[in-house]
Amino acid sequence: MTGRREGHGLMDEAVLLERLRRGDEAAFSHLVERHHRPLLRLARSFVSSQAVAEEVVQDTWVAVITGLPTFEARSSLKTWIFRILANRARTRGVREGRSVPFSSLSGDDEPAVDASRFSANGMWSRPPEAWDGNAPDTILMNGEAMRSLSRAMEELPPAQAAVVTLRDVAGMDSAEVCSVLEISETNQRVLLHRARSKLRRVLEEHVGAK
Amino acid sequence: MLTCQGLTELVTDYLEGRLPFTRWLSFQMHLGMCRHCRGYLRQMKVTVATLGHLPPEPMPPAIRDELLRRFKDMRSA
Predict the structure, then answer these.
(1) How far apart are the CA of B57 and the nearest CA of chain A, in angstroms?
(2) How many whole angstroms separate alpha carbon A203 and alpha carbon A199?
Protein backbone atom coordinates (compact mmCIF):
# COMPACT_ATOMS: atom_id res chain seq x y z
CA MET A 1 0.00 0.00 0.00
CA THR A 2 2.81 2.42 0.79
CA GLY A 3 5.30 1.87 -2.02
CA ARG A 4 5.71 4.02 -5.07
CA ARG A 5 2.58 3.80 -7.01
CA GLU A 6 2.49 4.63 -10.64
CA GLY A 7 -0.50 6.59 -11.80
CA HIS A 8 -2.35 6.67 -15.05
CA GLY A 9 -0.57 4.96 -17.88
CA LEU A 10 2.97 5.71 -16.89
CA MET A 11 5.50 4.31 -19.28
CA ASP A 12 8.57 2.66 -17.95
CA GLU A 13 11.14 5.42 -17.70
CA ALA A 14 13.89 3.72 -19.68
CA VAL A 15 11.47 3.03 -22.51
CA LEU A 16 10.15 6.58 -22.36
CA LEU A 17 13.63 8.08 -22.48
CA GLU A 18 14.61 5.91 -25.39
CA ARG A 19 11.52 6.96 -27.32
CA LEU A 20 12.05 10.64 -26.48
CA ARG A 21 15.58 10.45 -27.81
CA ARG A 22 14.31 8.94 -31.03
CA GLY A 23 12.04 11.96 -31.36
CA ASP A 24 8.82 10.07 -30.67
CA GLU A 25 6.14 12.75 -30.49
CA ALA A 26 3.61 10.56 -28.69
CA ALA A 27 6.16 9.94 -25.96
CA PHE A 28 6.79 13.66 -25.63
CA SER A 29 3.07 14.42 -25.44
CA HIS A 30 2.73 11.78 -22.78
CA LEU A 31 5.54 13.36 -20.75
CA VAL A 32 4.13 16.85 -21.07
CA GLU A 33 0.55 15.89 -20.26
CA ARG A 34 1.68 13.92 -17.27
CA HIS A 35 3.91 16.47 -15.60
CA HIS A 36 2.57 19.82 -16.75
CA ARG A 37 0.07 20.25 -13.94
CA PRO A 38 2.37 19.16 -11.06
CA LEU A 39 5.08 21.41 -12.53
CA LEU A 40 2.68 24.31 -12.55
CA ARG A 41 1.71 23.61 -8.99
CA LEU A 42 5.33 23.48 -7.90
CA ALA A 43 6.18 26.68 -9.77
CA ARG A 44 3.28 28.39 -8.05
CA SER A 45 4.95 27.67 -4.70
CA PHE A 46 7.88 29.87 -5.66
CA VAL A 47 6.43 32.74 -7.68
CA SER A 48 3.72 35.26 -7.05
CA SER A 49 1.32 34.73 -9.91
CA GLN A 50 -0.17 32.04 -12.08
CA ALA A 51 1.04 33.84 -15.21
CA VAL A 52 4.66 33.83 -14.04
CA ALA A 53 4.33 30.17 -13.02
CA GLU A 54 3.07 29.28 -16.50
CA GLU A 55 5.99 31.09 -18.05
CA VAL A 56 8.47 29.23 -15.85
CA VAL A 57 6.90 25.88 -16.75
CA GLN A 58 7.09 26.62 -20.47
CA ASP A 59 10.72 27.68 -20.14
CA THR A 60 11.33 24.44 -18.29
CA TRP A 61 9.89 22.37 -21.13
CA VAL A 62 12.05 24.21 -23.61
CA ALA A 63 15.09 23.48 -21.41
CA VAL A 64 14.04 19.82 -21.26
CA ILE A 65 13.78 19.61 -25.06
CA THR A 66 17.18 21.22 -25.42
CA GLY A 67 18.77 19.12 -22.71
CA LEU A 68 17.35 15.70 -23.65
CA PRO A 69 20.15 14.72 -26.03
CA THR A 70 22.76 15.26 -23.32
CA PHE A 71 20.71 14.11 -20.31
CA GLU A 72 22.91 11.58 -18.56
CA ALA A 73 20.27 9.83 -16.48
CA ARG A 74 22.20 10.27 -13.25
CA SER A 75 18.86 11.10 -11.68
CA SER A 76 15.50 9.96 -12.94
CA LEU A 77 14.05 11.86 -15.88
CA LYS A 78 11.25 13.11 -13.64
CA THR A 79 13.61 14.39 -10.96
CA TRP A 80 15.72 16.10 -13.61
CA ILE A 81 12.68 17.91 -15.01
CA PHE A 82 11.41 19.00 -11.61
CA ARG A 83 14.88 20.17 -10.61
CA ILE A 84 15.12 22.36 -13.72
CA LEU A 85 11.77 23.85 -12.79
CA ALA A 86 12.60 24.36 -9.12
CA ASN A 87 15.87 26.13 -9.96
CA ARG A 88 14.21 28.43 -12.45
CA ALA A 89 11.21 29.14 -10.26
CA ARG A 90 13.44 29.81 -7.25
CA THR A 91 15.57 32.30 -9.18
CA ARG A 92 12.44 33.96 -10.48
CA GLY A 93 10.96 34.13 -6.98
CA VAL A 94 14.09 35.71 -5.57
CA ARG A 95 14.07 38.27 -8.35
CA GLU A 96 10.47 39.05 -7.43
CA GLY A 97 11.58 39.59 -3.86
CA ARG A 98 9.61 36.58 -2.77
CA SER A 99 11.28 33.95 -0.70
CA VAL A 100 9.52 30.74 0.14
CA PRO A 101 9.79 29.84 3.80
CA PHE A 102 10.80 26.23 3.24
CA SER A 103 12.91 26.12 6.34
CA SER A 104 10.66 28.05 8.66
CA LEU A 105 8.23 25.61 10.19
CA SER A 106 6.53 28.09 12.43
CA GLY A 107 3.15 29.62 11.86
CA ASP A 108 1.27 26.46 11.05
CA ASP A 109 0.90 24.28 14.06
CA GLU A 110 -2.53 22.93 13.46
CA PRO A 111 -2.99 19.37 14.64
CA ALA A 112 -3.38 16.48 12.19
CA VAL A 113 -6.88 15.93 13.55
CA ASP A 114 -8.98 18.51 15.36
CA ALA A 115 -8.73 18.15 19.13
CA SER A 116 -12.53 18.04 19.39
CA ARG A 117 -12.44 14.55 17.88
CA PHE A 118 -10.72 13.18 20.99
CA SER A 119 -11.76 12.77 24.59
CA ALA A 120 -9.76 14.31 27.41
CA ASN A 121 -7.55 11.24 27.65
CA GLY A 122 -6.59 11.45 23.97
CA MET A 123 -8.79 8.58 22.73
CA TRP A 124 -11.12 8.99 19.77
CA SER A 125 -14.51 10.37 20.74
CA ARG A 126 -15.52 10.88 17.11
CA PRO A 127 -13.46 8.23 15.31
CA PRO A 128 -12.81 8.17 11.57
CA GLU A 129 -15.28 6.18 9.53
CA ALA A 130 -14.19 3.07 7.72
CA TRP A 131 -13.12 3.71 4.14
CA ASP A 132 -12.54 0.08 3.31
CA GLY A 133 -15.12 -0.01 0.57
CA ASN A 134 -13.74 3.26 -0.75
CA ALA A 135 -10.27 2.56 -2.00
CA PRO A 136 -8.83 5.33 -4.21
CA ASP A 137 -10.87 4.31 -7.25
CA THR A 138 -14.18 5.29 -5.67
CA ILE A 139 -12.78 8.59 -4.47
CA LEU A 140 -11.29 9.35 -7.88
CA MET A 141 -14.74 9.00 -9.40
CA ASN A 142 -16.33 11.27 -6.80
CA GLY A 143 -16.36 14.59 -8.63
CA GLU A 144 -17.14 16.66 -5.61
CA ALA A 145 -14.39 15.07 -3.53
CA MET A 146 -11.90 15.61 -6.35
CA ARG A 147 -12.85 19.28 -6.72
CA SER A 148 -12.45 19.82 -2.98
CA LEU A 149 -9.12 18.02 -3.02
CA SER A 150 -7.88 20.14 -5.87
CA ARG A 151 -9.01 23.34 -4.13
CA ALA A 152 -7.37 22.22 -0.89
CA MET A 153 -4.09 21.61 -2.74
CA GLU A 154 -4.22 25.16 -4.10
CA GLU A 155 -4.79 26.51 -0.62
CA LEU A 156 -1.92 24.69 1.10
CA PRO A 157 0.96 26.86 2.28
CA PRO A 158 3.53 26.95 -0.57
CA ALA A 159 6.15 24.72 1.06
CA GLN A 160 3.59 22.06 1.96
CA ALA A 161 2.12 22.19 -1.54
CA ALA A 162 5.58 21.74 -3.05
CA VAL A 163 6.43 18.72 -0.90
CA VAL A 164 3.13 16.88 -1.33
CA THR A 165 3.11 17.55 -5.07
CA LEU A 166 6.55 16.04 -5.51
CA ARG A 167 6.13 13.14 -3.09
CA ASP A 168 2.59 12.02 -3.63
CA VAL A 169 1.42 13.45 -6.95
CA ALA A 170 4.66 13.08 -8.91
CA GLY A 171 5.76 10.02 -6.93
CA MET A 172 9.32 10.96 -5.96
CA ASP A 173 11.08 9.55 -2.94
CA SER A 174 12.08 11.70 0.00
CA ALA A 175 15.76 11.98 -0.97
CA GLU A 176 14.80 13.26 -4.42
CA VAL A 177 12.37 15.77 -2.95
CA CYS A 178 14.94 17.06 -0.46
CA SER A 179 17.47 17.56 -3.23
CA VAL A 180 15.04 19.29 -5.59
CA LEU A 181 13.69 21.61 -2.90
CA GLU A 182 17.00 21.97 -1.03
CA ILE A 183 15.48 21.13 2.34
CA SER A 184 16.40 18.70 5.11
CA GLU A 185 14.78 15.31 5.46
CA THR A 186 13.17 16.28 8.78
CA ASN A 187 11.79 19.45 7.29
CA GLN A 188 10.42 17.54 4.34
CA ARG A 189 8.72 15.05 6.64
CA VAL A 190 7.05 17.73 8.77
CA LEU A 191 5.76 19.53 5.69
CA LEU A 192 4.53 16.26 4.21
CA HIS A 193 2.76 15.37 7.43
CA ARG A 194 0.89 18.66 7.58
CA ALA A 195 -0.09 18.52 3.95
CA ARG A 196 -1.27 14.91 3.98
CA SER A 197 -3.18 15.37 7.24
CA LYS A 198 -4.99 18.36 5.83
CA LEU A 199 -5.86 16.60 2.57
CA ARG A 200 -7.15 13.56 4.47
CA ARG A 201 -9.46 15.86 6.40
CA VAL A 202 -10.81 17.25 3.15
CA LEU A 203 -11.49 13.79 1.75
CA GLU A 204 -13.11 12.74 5.00
CA GLU A 205 -15.78 15.37 4.50
CA HIS A 206 -16.81 13.68 1.26
CA VAL A 207 -16.16 10.03 1.82
CA GLY A 208 -18.53 8.40 4.27
CA ALA A 209 -18.96 4.76 5.13
CA LYS A 210 -22.02 4.23 3.02
CA MET B 1 1.27 5.15 26.54
CA LEU B 2 0.58 6.31 23.03
CA THR B 3 -2.86 7.90 22.72
CA CYS B 4 -4.99 7.96 19.58
CA GLN B 5 -4.34 11.67 19.28
CA GLY B 6 -0.60 11.05 19.64
CA LEU B 7 -0.76 8.37 16.97
CA THR B 8 -2.31 10.72 14.41
CA GLU B 9 0.76 12.95 14.76
CA LEU B 10 3.17 10.05 14.24
CA VAL B 11 1.51 8.53 11.19
CA THR B 12 3.85 10.14 8.65
CA ASP B 13 6.98 9.22 10.59
CA TYR B 14 5.60 5.69 10.75
CA LEU B 15 4.88 5.50 7.02
CA GLU B 16 8.29 6.99 6.28
CA GLY B 17 9.97 4.37 8.46
CA ARG B 18 11.45 7.07 10.67
CA LEU B 19 10.11 6.10 14.09
CA PRO B 20 12.74 5.10 16.65
CA PHE B 21 12.31 1.45 17.59
CA THR B 22 10.50 1.95 20.92
CA ARG B 23 8.13 4.48 19.34
CA TRP B 24 7.52 2.13 16.46
CA LEU B 25 6.75 -0.66 18.92
CA SER B 26 4.18 1.36 20.85
CA PHE B 27 2.69 2.50 17.53
CA GLN B 28 2.30 -1.13 16.43
CA MET B 29 0.85 -2.17 19.78
CA HIS B 30 -1.64 0.66 19.72
CA LEU B 31 -2.69 -0.27 16.18
CA GLY B 32 -3.16 -3.85 17.25
CA MET B 33 -5.60 -2.79 19.94
CA CYS B 34 -7.36 0.12 18.28
CA ARG B 35 -9.69 -0.36 15.35
CA HIS B 36 -10.23 3.38 14.97
CA CYS B 37 -6.56 4.09 14.57
CA ARG B 38 -6.28 1.27 12.04
CA GLY B 39 -9.07 3.06 10.19
CA TYR B 40 -7.18 6.33 10.46
CA LEU B 41 -3.99 4.81 9.10
CA ARG B 42 -5.94 3.33 6.22
CA GLN B 43 -7.46 6.74 5.45
CA MET B 44 -4.00 8.26 5.30
CA LYS B 45 -2.82 5.53 2.94
CA VAL B 46 -5.88 5.98 0.75
CA THR B 47 -5.28 9.74 0.71
CA VAL B 48 -1.71 9.20 -0.49
CA ALA B 49 -2.83 6.65 -3.08
CA THR B 50 -5.51 9.04 -4.35
CA LEU B 51 -2.94 11.80 -4.83
CA GLY B 52 -0.79 9.36 -6.78
CA HIS B 53 -3.61 8.62 -9.17
CA LEU B 54 -4.91 12.07 -10.00
CA PRO B 55 -5.83 12.06 -13.67
CA PRO B 56 -3.62 14.31 -15.78
CA GLU B 57 -5.42 17.57 -16.39
CA PRO B 58 -5.66 18.71 -19.98
CA MET B 59 -3.30 21.53 -20.83
CA PRO B 60 -4.09 24.37 -23.20
CA PRO B 61 -3.77 22.94 -26.74
CA ALA B 62 -1.90 26.04 -27.92
CA ILE B 63 0.87 25.45 -25.39
CA ARG B 64 1.02 21.74 -26.09
CA ASP B 65 1.22 22.30 -29.84
CA GLU B 66 3.94 24.91 -29.43
CA LEU B 67 6.02 22.54 -27.29
CA LEU B 68 5.49 19.72 -29.76
CA ARG B 69 6.62 21.98 -32.58
CA ARG B 70 9.81 22.79 -30.69
CA PHE B 71 10.34 19.13 -29.95
CA LYS B 72 10.07 18.35 -33.67
CA ASP B 73 12.36 21.25 -34.62
CA MET B 74 14.96 19.99 -32.20
CA ARG B 75 14.95 16.63 -33.97
CA SER B 76 15.31 18.05 -37.42
CA ALA B 77 17.95 20.58 -36.37
Answers:
(1) 7
(2) 6
